[in-house]
Structure formats: structure tokens, C-alpha cells
Design goal:
Elements: E1 3-9, H1 14-24, E2 31-38, E3 41-48, H2 51-57, E4 67-73, E5 88-89, E6 93-101, H3 104-113, H4 124-135, H5 140-150, E7 153-161, E8 164-173, E9 178-182, E10 185-189, H6 192-195, E11 201-204, E12 210-214, E13 217-221, E14 227-228, E15 233-234, H7 250-256, H8 258-269, E16 270-271, E17 276-277, E18 291-296, H9 298-315, E19 318-323, H10 324-327, E20 338-344, H11 350-361, E21 365-370, H12 376-379, E22 383-386, H13 399-418, H14 424-434, H15 437-444, H16 449-460, E23 464-468, H17 473-487, E24 491-495, E25 512-517, H18 523-534, E26 539-545, E27 558-562, H19 570-589
Parallel strand pairs: 18-19, 18-20, 20-21, 21-22, 23-24, 23-25, 25-26, 26-27
Antiparallel strand pairs: 1-4, 1-10, 2-3, 2-4, 5-6, 6-7, 7-8, 8-12, 9-10, 9-11, 11-15, 12-13, 13-14, 16-17
Bound molecules: 2-deoxy-2-amino glucitol-6-phosphate.
Length: about 600
């Protein structure tokens, strides 16, 4: 979740490094720094906070050097401050790092005993001194391979050397790293997004590989230090340069883009003429799949949980769902007839990627649902279902969530039909209903003013609950997560029927509680649960669907009615007011909406 950029050029690099770091801030923004080589010296500038701080604190326009590395940090070891900011440098080596060195403590002790002096609390600084130590006795390639062998844990590295004025070394294990090719210059970056402004030609390093990047040459090596040839990929153009347009925040733009997200997904996967699902080159015969396991983190996990309900309903398969950081360490019983589906917007989340690697190692059937099609998870799954929603910059996921659950819903329809669990008439009807979804979302997005008005109640409360049953329960979890990560107030998503088994004790006078109760099979029971919390003083925001029947209950604080539709599709509509509730709560608090504190867009470390 840190961002790395390196440029080796025939001209000054500081401006391009700064621009790339600004694009990389979605990966982390606790601190930022640059190191360039100029006149045989390493020039290192770094500061706490955003890249803007770096620009305010240093005259970067006059920062000399035709080769340099840059870094934006999401702190893992050592508090976010100037000392712990990357790059870290010795007298002759400077390093930027994304990942976690798990044996840094023992290596540090050994290096201190050998006379090395440390300035920071970071694990990264160990890498600097280890390379410096190894270079005393070994040629460069051997010093690099030896150093990488000594490191335990994950890393993406960018390294420059005082005595080698045009070389950047990159190395990858567990954290993504890419090389880009430009005119009279070449690049190293954490991901393609950082490099897109400069090139559309990219090569990804695989785990264990390292590379030598010069302005006119790039060499790749495997773990043993043997040269390897690698393909140059042309980047997809669907991530053209990106700005907020007239929106105040990327998140606001991405919320409003959701009708387009759904339209794109429908265009991609639905044959409107024949009212059929187009999922081409599915690598397995449907009879080979007897169960499904869905795996993800955060919002992507909520997509998995949402999909569980649809898969169970439509395919009659056994479905399990797992949080990736749990799955990767549990004693799993891998089954050949299980389809493992990995959901990840970035396609680089460390825990989800590790869970995929575990399944690949056990030769399981793996499918990924991703937004970044050049990502590690996408490239290393047997089968990929892209959501095509364009770059999602806001750290809080919105359109990617809807894109994920759309693709998963479409997949459940297809598998259900192929397994004869839903008949042709029902299948065609559901596809027909799906096509009305963009318009329904457009209408739901209009609930703007009423949500703005009620958002401050959530800000003033010491906590809130989000309740739902069945299809609405994963949406309750997602709504609570949005409010937590944007306005930093406690919120808890809970199965409505479960409140009476303990959490009802939390309810007190005036506590805001969101109740998701569309007119589906769970409606009546959820309304009863709603009355239980109202009876104990809760201020209930009821989000239901339009109906000619009145809601049978009094003392509801506020009601929002989404459009009526096929009940499979209510989750899409219920999500919208919850995204806006979190957005307006954070807006009222004046918090950084696109980059909430302590978070990052792509969590590429454990
Ligand atoms: C969602 O709003 C959060 N930003 C976070 O939970 C995110 O969904 C999670 O880190 C997974 O990211 P991924 O989809 O890129 O794997």
C-alpha cells in the first residue's frame, strides 16, 4: 500500500517523479520523499504528510538529477514522520520499499554489530544497510541476489547507487512492481496507474525477479540472478487520464457514475437480443463445479457475501464465503470440484492475493472478479471477470462494489440457468429486469437532499447500527463500513434478526439505526425487528421500497423509498443512500473524503 516510482532518463526527473507520486497517493499518504543522483551524490528530500508538503518544504523544481526514485508511504513499521519517510539512504545506496521485512529486527542487530548506524524505526532501512554491506565484498548482481535471499517477507524495491549514475534496480516479492518504457528514459512503478501518464508499454515483474533499469536499457533477472526475457504489454486505454470533473471529490463522482458502471457491465456480459448472459471461454464444464467459495477483503468481502445469497438462491450450489486474511491461514480442505472466486477492485490486495496463491498451489479452479485487469490477482487466476468500471480513485469503494455485485449476480444467473435451477422464462425475465437497473439507480441517486439533512444525526451520535435480513444483510455491513471509514464514527452492520441476542442492549434514546427493509420476503420480519429498536428509543432511518401499502409502524424518524423492482435487485438500490449518507457525514465533518485517515486504496501488505 505504499507507492513507488523510479525514472532513469536523459533529462531531469524530479517533475515526473512528483507527478507520479501524486497519482500514487491513493496507495498511501502518510509521508513522501525523493532521492536523485546528481554530481556523484545522493540527494534525498522527504517530509511527513502529502506530496504537497514535499513541494512546500523543498525547491523540487531545481532538484537536479536524471535518475531518481520516489515514494508515498502508508506506515507499517514506524510512525508517519519525516525520519521514517522513504527513501532511506546510506552513503552510497538509497531505497524505496513497499511491503514488510519480517526478519528486520534480527538483521538490524547484525548490521549494528557490524558498525551500521540507523536513523529510522523502519524495516526498510535494514535493506539499505544490507546492500551497502554486501557491496563491500560482492559485484552488484551478486550483492543484490544475496540481499534478496537474506530478506524474509514481502517487498517491491527501487534502489539507486551513488557510484552507478544511470541505474535503478527493482525487485519484487509479494508486492507488485512494473517497468515502463519511454523515449530516452525508462521507469519503475508500483502499478501501471503511476506509469500511465508517461507510457502505455509495461512489463510486470513476477515474484523473485529483479531488474536493472537504465534510460536506454532494461534487463530482467530471476531469483538465481539469471537473465530472463519478459513480454512488453500494451496498457488498456479504459483508464485514460482521470480527473474529478466538476465534482468536489472522486467519491462523489464515482457514486454518480454508477448507472454507467451498471450499463457497462450489462453491455459487457448481457446479449440483449437473445436475452442471454455472455461469459466466454469459461474454462470448466458446469458439471465440474459442485460448490463455490468466495474470498475477499473489506467491501470486496461484502460483495462475496452478497453473491452467496444469489448463488444459493439461483444455482442451488453449496456456497461459502471467507475473509481473505482468515482463509489464508486456516486449515482449508481444498476440493477439486469447488470454484474459488476472488473479488478485488485493485487486484493487488495482499491477503486476497495470498489466498489465490494458496489455491493455485493446490491446483484449484480459480476465478477473479477485478477492476484492474493488469493486476496480479487477475493475471494469476485461471479465469477473469473484469468489472470495467474505470479507475476508482476514492479510497472508499463505491462504483466498484456495484460493479462487483453486478458481475457476480450475472454469473449466478448463468450458472443457475446452465444447471437448470432456473427455467428459461425466469432466466429471460431476470435479464430483462436487469436492464432496467441503470434507470432505477438514476432515480435512487436523486435522494440527495433528504440524506444530506439526516447525515449530521449520525455524526453527533456515539455509534449507529445498520440492520438487514437476507439480501439486505450484506448491504447493511457495507453501509456501516462506508460510514466508519469516511466519518470515523463507530457503526455496526448486523443481521436484523440477531439484535435480540445481545446488541439490543446497545440501543438507547436517540441512537440512529438504519433499517433496510425493501418489500421482499424478509420485509415483515424486518419491520418487527425495527419495532423492537424503536420501542427502546432508536431513531430509525427506514430504507424501504415504494409500495401502495403503508409501512405498518409508528415513530419512524425518517423513511427513504427506493424504486420497486425484482427483489434480486434491491441490494443495488439500497446501497446508494448508504454511500451518500457516509459521504455527507464526512463532508459535514470536513474530513478528507477521497483519502480517509489511516487507510489506503490498495492494501498490498498483510
Ligand atoms: C472499501 O471501501 C475499502 N477501501 C476496503 O475495504 C477495500 O474494499 C478492501 O481493502 C479490498 O480492496 P480490493 O477490492 O482492492 O481488494
Amino acid at each position: 500500500m505504499c507507492g513507488i516510482i523510479g525514472i532513469s532518463s536523459n533529462k531531469s526527473v524530479s517533475a515526473n517523479i512528483i507527478n507520479s507520486l501524486k497519482k500514487l497517493e491513493y496507495r498511501g499518504y502518510d509521508s513522501a520523499g525523493i532521492a536523485t543522483l546528481s554530481d556523484g551524490e545522493i540527494i534525498e528530500v522527504k517530509s511527513e504528510g502529502r506530496v504537497d508538503n514535499l513541494e512546500n518544504n523543498f525547491d523540487l523544481k531545481n532538484l537536479k538529477g536524471n535518475i531518481g526514485i520516489g515514494h508515498v508511504r502508508w506506515a507499517t513499521h514506524g510512525i508517519p514522520n519525516q525520519i521514517n519517510a522513504h527513501p532511506h539512504s546510506s552513503h552510497n545506496v538509497s531505497v524505496v520499499h513497499n511491503g514488510i521485512i519480517e526478519n528486520s529486527t534480527i538483521l538490524k542487530k547484525h548490521l549494528i554489530n557490524n558498525g551500521h548506524k540507523f536513523k529510522s524505526q523502519t524495516d526498510t532501512e535494514v535493506i539499505v544497510h544490507l546492500i551497502t554491506e554486501n557491496l563491500k565484498t560482492l559485484e552488484l548482481e551478486y550483492a543484490i541476489t544475496k540481499t534478496l535471499k537474506q530478506l524474509h517477507g514481502s517487498f517491491a524495491l527501487g534502489i539507486v547507487f551513488k557510484d552507478i549514475p544511470d541505474l535503478i534496480v527493482g525487485a519484487r516479492r509479494g508486492s507488485p512492481l512494473a517497468v515502463g518504457y519511454g523515449p530516452n528514459e525508462n521507469y519503475l512503478g508500483s502499478d501501471s496507474y503511476a506509469l500511465k501518464a508517461m507510457t502505455n508499454k509495461i512489463t510486470y515483474l513476477e515474484d523473485g525477479e529483479f531488474c536493472f533499469v537504465k534510460k536506454d536499457q532494461v534487463l530482467f533477472f530471476n531469483e538465481a540472478g539469471k537473465k530472463v526475457n519478459k513480454k512488453i504489454l500494451k496498457l488498456s486505454s479504459d483508464e485514460a487520464s482521470y480527473d474529478k470533473g466538476d465534482f468536489k471529490h472522486f467519491m462523489a463522482k464515482e457514486i454518480e457514475e454508477q448507472p454507467t458502471t451498471i450499463k457497462t457491465g450489462i453491455k459487457e456480459y448481457i446479449d440483449s437480443v437473445n436475452k442471454d448472459v455472455n461469459i466466454f471461454n469459461f474454462p470448466w464444464n458446469i458439471d465440474e463445479i459442485k460448490s463455490i467459495t468466495l474470498i475477499g477483503c473489506g467491501t470486496a468481502y461484502h460483495s462475496c457475501l452478497m453473491a452467496k445469497y444469489w448463488f444459493e438462491e439461483l444455482t442451488n450450489l453449496d456456497v461459502s464465503v471467507d475473509i481473505a486474511s482468515e482463509f489464508r491461514y486456516r486449515k482449508n480442505r481444498f476440493k477439486k470440484d469447488t470454484l474459488y472466486i476472488f473479488v478485488s477492485q485493485s487486484g493487488e490486495t495482499a491477503d486476497t492475493y495470498a489466498a489465490l496463491n494458496l489455491c493455485n498451489k493446490n491446483k484449484m479452479k480459480t476465478c477473479s472478479v477485478v477492476n484492474v485487469i493488469e493486476s496480479s490477482i487477475s493475471r494469476e487466476s485461471n479465469f477473469v471477470l473484469p468489472i470495467h468500471c474505470g479507475p476508482e480513485i476514492g479510497v472508499a469503494s463505491t462504483k466498484a462494489f456495484l460493479g462487483q455485485i453486478l458481475v457476480l449476480y450475472i454469473l449466478s444467473l448463468k450458472i443457475g440457468f446452465l444447471r437448470n435451477e432456473i427455467d428459461r422464462v425466469e432466466y429471460k425475465q431476470k435479464i430483462k429486469d436487469l436492464k432496467t437497473l441503470p434507470g432505477l439507480i438514476e432515480k435512487t441517486l436523486q435522494h440527495d437532499n433528504d440524506i444530506q439533512a439526516i447525515s449530521s444525526t449520525f455524526n453527533d451520535a456515539k455509534g449507529s447500527m445498520f440492520l438487514g435480513r437476507g439480501f439486505s444483510y450484506p448491504i447493511a455491513l457495507e453501509g456501516a463500513l462506508k460510514l466508519k471509514e469516511l466519518s470515523y464514527v463507530h457503526a455496526e452492520g448486523y443481521p436484523a434478526g440477531e439484535m435480540k441476542h445481545g446488541p439490543l442492549a446497545l440501543i438507547e434514546e436517540g441512537m440512529p439505526v438504519v433499517v433496510l427493509a425493501p418489500r421482499d420476503n424478509y420485509y415483515k420480519k424486518t419491520i418487527s425487528n425495527m419495532q423492537e429498536v424503536i420501542a427502546r428509543g432508536a431513531k430509525v432511518l427506514l430504507i424501504t421500497s415504494k409500495s401502495k401499502d403503508e409501512v405498518v409502524s409508528e415513530n419512524i424518524w425518517e423513511t427513504i423509498e427506493v424504486e420497486n423492482t425484482n427483489e434480486d435487485l434491491f441490494p443495488f438500490l439500497l446501497t446508494i443512500p448508504l454511500q451518500k449518507l457516509a459521504y455527507y457525514s464526512a463532508l459535514k465533518k470536513g474530513y478528507d473524503i477521497d483519502k480517509p485517515r489511516n487507510l489506503a486504496k490498495s492494501v498490498t501488505v498483510e
